[in-house]
Amino acid sequence: MTPLIELCEASVLRDGATVLDRINLRIELRQHSVVLGPNGCGKSSLVKLIDRTLYPIPRDENETPPVRLFGESRWNVAQLRARLGLVSADLHNDLAMLNGLDVEDVVVSGFRASYGIPDHLRVTSQMLDRAHAALDRMGIFPLRHRRLTTLSAGEARRALIARALVHEPQALLLDEPTTGLDIAARTHFLDLLRDLANTGTTLVLVTHHLEEVLPETRQAILLKQGRVLAQGEPAAVLTSENLSALHGLSLRVIETGNGFRQLLPG
Question: pLDDT of 149-173, one tens digit each?
Answer without folding.
Answer: 999 999 999 999 999 999 999 999 9
